[in-house]
Design a protein that fits this description.
Distance between the termini: 5 Å
CATH architecture of the largest domain: 3-Layer(aba) Sandwich
Largest sheet: 10 strands, mixed
Number of strands: 14
CATH topology of the largest domain: D-Maltodextrin-Binding Protein, domain 2
Structural class: alpha/beta
Number of domains: 2
Shape: globular
Strand content: 15-25%
Radius of gyration: 21 Å
CATH class of the largest domain: Alpha Beta
Length: about 450
């Protein structure tokens, strides 16, 4: 795990030696697209500058995020912030930040440089674990208690210290096999339940360039999306990317999982599409299925209303039904000088009816705490999602389970894996050989973990 800033409003300090060790990891990420993933990001930057008050004299609370760039989620967050801002007499909440492809690197760079211009931070699990280790979060105890909720300890284990929560999920997305029911029915197929069936159906349904049987991210230009999807793939054979500080990319489960991906890549996948192009392909009914995060349906509902009703899901097509759940917490930023106003917003957001509103508007389904399940509107909502059952029928694992101590260097780890794996996908190098190269580099990375 990486260490705190040199100094800042929170008073955290570290040595020059520790900073240089941390900066070496950030620098490695800066050499390529930041390797943290989410779906639907678009280009652009949003920033609120250094304003501390709104036109109405309220304290302006800045929430660092990428949600404002995602179809579906940006509308959900806008509605929720409008509701808070209309109710609060003292605070006004706004989103600031960057699209997802830039987000992690920008946040880490600013944190390392001396401070982020924000009061709360939303983060994907890999980045949240890294920021937590940097002491960039404050306990959310006051807000949690005031909201009267009890966050799930297993979901949030990576942002808990000494019994206190340092973040609460605003969105938890899981992987499942999302498929177009019409495409499979017309081919006389039921969703696959084994890797072998998945390969066979993918080949049967592929009629290039008109239709592809399997949609999975594989574009190095959007390596973040590629990595977090590939990260989940090792669940096919109960694999782990690492255990503690020991990389396991040459283990049989990882090799078999990557060989499965390569087989699908060679026979059934569209190659080199960016995320928007991939979603357009599925939105046109030209992609049959993929092991994708549940957030994909939000993009489809927003951009492809004719195809959205055809989407269904089952658990991933392998024994054990393991799938990665990705928790994206919101946390109080330790460098903020507006903790009272930030806590006011966080308390309001965590109240079950407000979190339920955000969850439903975002087409999410995994509640961060049991109190959400007592909200009548949320109960009705869960019963009216025909695409949901497969995402509920999984054995959940977390990125932390898969990555060991490398969770705080997940982007660097992924960059090494993807660069080596590309030799297998495009250059004909056996997977075992390319992962042998990656293993050596990852062992060197292990020595730089703090």
């Amino acid at each position: 795990m990486i260490e705190p800033l040199i100094s800042g409003p929170s008073g955290h300090r570290l040595s020059r030696r520790s900073l240089l060790k941390s900066a070496s990891l950030v620098g490695a990420a800066a050499l390529s697209t930041p390797l943290l993933g989410a779906c639907g990001a678009s280009d652009g930057v949003t920033s609120a500058g250094s304003t501390n008050t709104s036109a109405g004299g309220k304290t302006q609370v800045k929430i660092a995020s990428w949600m404002q760039f995602e179809p579906g989620r940006k509308e959900a967050w806008a509605a929720v912030l409008d509701a808070f801002n209309a109710q609060s007499r003292t605070a006004e909440a706004v989103l600031v930040g960057w699209p997802f492809a830039q987000y992690a690197n920008q946040v880490l760079t600013q944190v390392q440089a001396g401070g982020l211009d924000a009061d709360l931070i939303t983060a994907p699990p890999d980045l949240a674990a890294r920021l937590f280790s940097l002491n960039q979060f404050l306990p959310a105890t006051q807000a949690i208690d005031a909201a009267g909720v009890h966050p799930d300890e297993k979901l949030h284990s990576f942002v808990i210290k000494e019994g206190q929560f340092y973040g609460v999920s605003t969105v938890t997305v899981g992987f499942g096999l999302l498929y177009n029911e019409k495409v499979l029915e017309e081919a006389g197929l039921q969703p696959p339940t084994t890797p072998e069936e998945w390969v066979a159906q993918g080949q049967q349904l592929t009629v290039q360039p008109d239709r592809f049987g399997v949609l999975q991210a594989n574009n190095m230009a959007e390596a973040g999306n590629f990595w977090f999807n590939l990260q989940n793939t090792v669940n096919a054979y109960d694999g782990l990317w690492a255990q503690g500080r020991t990389p396991l990319v040459t283990s049989d489960p990882v090799i078999k999982s990557l060989e499965l991906f390569k087989t699908l890549y060679d026979s059934s996948m569209p190659k080199g599409l960016n995320d928007a192009q991939s979603m357009a392909l599925m939105g046109d009914g030209r992609a049959a299925m993929g092991v994708l995060v549940s957030a994909t349906v939000n993009v489809l509902k927003s951009g492809s209303p004719d195809v959205y009703p055809l989407m269904r899901s089952v658990a991933p097509p392998w024994a054990g039904k393991k799938a990665t759940n990705r928790v994206h917490p919101i946390s109080l930023y330790s460098g903020s000088n507006k903790q009272e106003a930030a806590t006011e917003f966080l308390t309001w957001l965590l109240k079950p009816e407000n979190m339920a509103d955000l969850t439903m508007r975002s087409l999410d389904a995994i509640p961060p705490y049991p109190e959400l399940e007592q909200v009548p509107a949320f109960q009705a909502y869960l019963k009216d999602l025909p695409w949901l059952p497969g995402y509920q029928d999984v054995t959940p694992v977390t990125p932390m389970d898969l990555m060991g101590d490398f969770i705080t260097a997940s982007d660097e780890f992924g960059n090494i894996v993807l660069t080596s794996f590309q030799q297998s996908l495009s250059g004909g190098v056996p997977v075992a050989e390319s992962m042998g190269q990656a293993q050596t580099q990852l062992e060197a990375l292990a020595s730089r973990l703090t």
